[in-house]
């Protein structure tokens, strides 16, 4: 009897786990709270996220992944082990685990993901590039000689790929995504209003009134933070037009990256993309007006996939179900695994 097959979207902001035959069984923030006095993990996921900016001096809430890759190996392993134990019991049989990684991952970064998954209790580890997993989860047929363009905008990275015959013909990965949008909002509120806000507040602003194209009606929002002048709590009001201007520079970086990928794409595949359109996945794709801006910039029909946040996790689960069929082109095994 074999252990479970697990697909993991190991995101900078969120971890999603898909178990073969069950679907998505876990969606938790990629946050770990650690007691600095003894290096003991005191909370993981949602509970740890609630502690960000609210912990005593000896407890720190950290995100062990930054820019789509592991920045703290030990905490990533602890976090993965905790999540995997929550969703499956592998006392007797260890699971096979497939994890998505950014398309331009280095050998060192790849090895870190592999080792973290093995440390978390995997029997065998497979790596799949995020845009390929996203395309599968979005329901695109990537097995045919037909070009599909996928833009996966997560927390740490934006991954762009033109996929044909189970592989990425052209790909790019930039470290401009949801986290950078949040950072721009934090800097703006500090610069204009002399008020310091936290990462979670910036995320709330982005979700509530964030946009990269004009809304039909201007939305307003009260933002609470700490005055840098008096040191006391202060509430200020911002609106969607201000936030739209703030998010323009990172948006331009994403548009330029998409443009660059299209410039490097063979003409026949470009023709396919014009016919099939561009598909957006990841939490960042939900930013108001993003599909309109990409369509205006490229002249190519652009749509947001159904349930874009879970596309990558669904894709890893579907890839596990067809492991034997897709192993040649789709599954990007770690170099360690190949050597064995």
TrEMBL record:
Task: List GO terms (cellular component aspect).
Answer: cytoplasm
Q: Which Gene3D superfamilies match?
A: 3.30.420.40
Key word Cytoplasm present: yes
Which locations, inside or outside the cell, does it occupy? Cytoplasm
**One record GO biological process:** cell morphogenesis
Molecular function in Gene Ontology:
ATP binding
Keyword line = ATP-binding, Cell shape, Cytoplasm, Nucleotide-binding
Superkingdom is: Bacteria
Q: Tell me the residue numbers annotated for binding ATP.
A: 155-157, 203-206, 283-286
UniProt-listed HAMAP family: MreB
* General function of this protein: Forms membrane-associated dynamic filaments that are essential for cell shape determination. Acts by regulating cell wall synthesis and cell elongation, and thus cell shape. A feedback loop between cell geometry and MreB localization may maintain elongated cell shape by targeting cell wall growth to regions of negative cell wall curvature.
- Family per UniProt? Belongs to the FtsA/MreB family.
Q: Cross-referenced NCBIfam families, in alphabetical order?
A: mreB (TIGR00904), PRK13927.1 (NF010539)
Describe its partners and assembly state.
Answer: Forms polymers.
Q: What is this protein called?
A: Cell shape-determining protein MreB
What is the species listed in this Swiss-Prot or TrEMBL entry? Ethanoligenens harbinense (strain DSM 18485 / JCM 12961 / CGMCC 1.5033 / YUAN-3)
What gene name is given for the protein in this entry?
A: mreB
